[in-house]
């Protein structure tokens, strides 16, 4: 089979992956809409942008969820840390406004 040939099974897998990727983007967009509102609220009541205690609890909770879902907990923690760092950056920006 050449690269130009269509493989129906591979095409089906890829359509599923594309659908999941689209769902992930929409879920992340909604999450960031909410966390931006949190950042604005924190700024308005003079709360710090970061909450290390909550971050620790969230990471522990999501590592457990990852284990239960047979997903590498190290990967899930790295992914969550990336999101948390971006949220904190947004909260810091809201605080400076």
TrEMBL record:
EC number(s) per entry: 5.4.99.5
Domain Chorismate mutase: residue ranges: 4-95
UniProt keyword annotations, A-Z: Isomerase
A Pfam family annotated for this UniProt entry: CM_2
Recorded GO MF terms: chorismate mutase activity
Kinase listed as a keyword: no
GO annotation terms (biological process): chorismate metabolic process; salicylic acid biosynthetic process
PANTHER family from the UniProt entry: CHORISMATE MUTASE
Protein name (database record): chorismate mutase
């Amino acid at each position: 089979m050449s690269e130009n040939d269509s493989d129906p099974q591979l095409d089906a897998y890829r359509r599923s992956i594309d659908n999941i990727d689209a769902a992930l983007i929409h879920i992340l967009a909604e999450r960031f809409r909410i966390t931006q509102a949190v950042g604005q609220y924190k700024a308005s009541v003079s709360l710090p942008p970061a909450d290390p205690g909550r971050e620790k609890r969230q990471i522990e909770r999501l590592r457990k969820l990852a284990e239960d879902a047979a997903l590498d907990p190290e990967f899930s923690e790295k992914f969550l840390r990336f999101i948390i760092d971006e949220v904190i950056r947004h909260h810091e920006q809201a605080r400076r406004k």
